Amino acid sequence: MNVTILWDNFLEEIKKEITSLSYETWFQDTHLYALENGKATIIVPMEIHKRHLEDNYKDLIIQTFNNLAGSNFEIEFLLQEEIDEKKEIERRKEEEKEVIIPSNNNVQSNLNPNYTFENFVVGNSNKFAHAAALSVAENPGKMYNPLFIYGNSGLGKTHLMHAIGNFIVQNSNRRVLYVTSEQFIEDFLGINTKDDNGNNFNYIEYFKNKYRNVDVLIIDDIQFLGGATKTQQEFFHTFNTLYSDNKQIIISSDRSPDDLKVLEDRLRTRFCWGLTVDIFPPDFDLRVSILKKKILGGAIEREIPEDVIEYIASNMGNDVRQLEGSVNRLLAYSTIMGGQEINLDLAIEALKDFINKGVTEKNDIQKIQKRVAEFYQISSEDMKSKKRSANLAFPRQVAMYLCRKLTNESFPKIGMEFGGKDHSTVMHSCEKIEREMKTNKELAGTIEKLMKDIK
Ligand code: ADP
Ligand code: MG
C-alpha cells in the first residue's frame, strides 16, 4: 500500500478517537515518511510534537496503525531536518563505498610461487609445451598470442601457466592475472548483483578494470566456460580488447580448440590465432624424474629408495597428480605404521588398493606384443607363455626389446605384461637382441621395420 494513502486512512481513524482540537494540534501536519526494517518513520512539524505524541498517544498510534497495515511496525517520530541529515549521511556512506571499490592498480596476480620453470621437469611428452611457455614468458604479447595449452588432467598445464606468470612478474613490471574460468564467471556474475537503487555501474567498472587492465591474462580450464553463454560473450570482448592491445593471453583446456564444442565458434577460432600446444602423458623416465624432483626439490623430506620410485612410476598411472598422491600416501602409511622404513615391500602394501586404477593410457606394450606376434606368426598367448622353444622365445625377446625401446616402461612392468616374467629376464632379452643386431643385418632390418609399423 502507498504510504500516503495508508497515512490518510490512519488519520481518519485517529480523528474518530480524539477531540478535534487534539487532532488539529498534534496530528494534522504529520506524514508517514517510510516503512522500513519493521519501523514506521513519521515526520512531525516540531520537536514538541515528538515528545507529546510519544508520551500521550504512542499506544493508540501503534494499535491503530498496525491494525491498518496488518503488521507489527514500531513507530519513530522525526523532524524533516533529521530525515534530511540521515539522507546526507547515507549519501556520504555511498560515496565512500564507491571509493573503496578496488581499483586493481596493484593487481592480485593469484600466482602460486611454487609452480616455476625451475621445478618443471621436461621430457619428450611436454617439451614442446614447455618451450612454447618459456618463449611466451620471455616475449609476452609478441610471439604466440594466444598460447593455448591442452592435455589431460594432471599433466602440468596449471603448473606451466603459473610458471609463465611467475617468470613475467619477476622479470618485468607487467601486470599478470591468473584466474580459473570459474572465477571469471563468478566475477562476471557480480555484475548482475545490483545495489539497492538498482544500480550496477560500479561492478561493471570493477570487472572491466580487473580484466582489461592487465598485460597478461591467464585463464585456466576454459572448458568450464561451457554453460555460461553470457560470460562467453564477455570473455570474447575481453579477449578482443586485450588482443588488439598486444596483451598476452594464455588459455588452458582439457581438450583442443577443435574439440571445445561447448564454446562459441568465434571464440574457438580466435584460440587458433596463436599457438596451440598439447601435453602428453609422461613416459616412464619422465615419471621417475618428476618423482625424484619432487623428493629432492624439498617437497618431500624423507628419503625414498630408487626401486620404490620406479615401482610407483611403473604402477600408478601417468597422471602426475596421482603419482604425487601415491608418494604422499606411502609417506602417510609409513608414519601410521610407526615410522616404518620406506622400502619396496612397504610401498606395495601401502599402494595395493590403488594400483593400476590410475592407468589411463592405452597399453602400448600389448600393442607391440600383438604386432610382433603377427609378424612371427605366433599367438599372443604364446608371446606371454613360459614355453621356451626357440620359435617362441626369440619373438618374445624381440617384443621385449621393442617395448623397452618404444615405451620406456620399466623392466619390471614389461616383465609383468609378459605373463609375469622377472625383470632380469626382460633385461637379458633386451641385451641379447641389442648384441645380435650388431652382427645380424637381417634382424636389424626386421626390427627397424617393426618399429616403423608400431609407431
Ligand atoms: P593440470 O593442470 O594439467 O591438471 P597440474 O599443473 O595441476 O596439472 O599438475 C598436477 C601436479 O603435477 C602439480 O603438482 C604439478 O606440479 C605436477 N607436475 C605435472 N607435470 C610436472 C612436471 N613436468 N614437472 C614437475 N611437476 C609436474
Ligand atoms: Mg589444471
Which structural class is indicated by helix and strand composition? Answer: alpha/beta
Shape: elongated
Describe the biggest sheet?
Answer: 5 strands, parallel
Can you tell me the number of structural domains? 4
Show unreliable segments. Answer: 99-106, 358-362
CATH superfamily of the largest domain: P-loop containing nucleotide triphosphate hydrolases
Ligands in the model, by name, code or SMILES, are:
adenosine-5'-diphosphate, magnesium ion
**What's the total count of β strands?**
8
Main β-sheet, spatial strand arrangement: 5-6-7-4-8
Distance between the termini: 80 Å
Q: What would CATH call the class of the largest domain?
A: Alpha Beta
What is the CA-atom radius of gyration, in angstroms? 37 Å
Level-2 CATH architecture of the largest domain: 3-Layer(aba) Sandwich
Describe the protein.
With 455 residues, this protein is α/β, with parallel strands linked by helices. The chain folds into 4 domains: 3-96, DnaA, N-terminal domain (GMP Synthetase, Chain A, domain 3, 2-Layer Sandwich), CATH 3.30.300.180; 106-278, 3-Layer(aba) Sandwich (Rossmann fold), CATH 3.40.50; 284-350, Orthogonal Bundle (Helicase, Ruva Protein, domain 3), CATH 1.10.8; 364-454, DnaA protein, C-terminal DNA-binding domain (Chromosomal Replication Initiator Protein Dnaa, Chain: A, Orthogonal Bundle), CATH 1.10.1750. The chain is built from 20 helices and 8 strands. It has helices at residues 3-17, 20-27, 47-69, 80-100, 127-138, 157-171, 181-190, 201-212, 229-244, 265-271, 284-296, 306-315, 320-336, 344-351, 364-376, 380-384, 390-407, 411-417, 423-439, 441-454, and strands at residues 31-36, 39-44, 74-79, 147-151, 176-180, 216-220, 248-253, 275-279. The strands form 2 sheets. It has a 5-stranded parallel β-sheet, with helices on both faces. It has a 3-stranded mixed β-sheet with strand order 1-2-3. A hairpin with a 2-residue loop joins strand 1 (31-36) and strand 2. Helix 5 runs parallel beside helix 6 (157-171). The chain is elongated, with a radius of gyration of 37 Å. Residues 99-106 and 358-362 have low confidence and may be disordered. Residues 157-158, 220-221 line the site of magnesium ion.
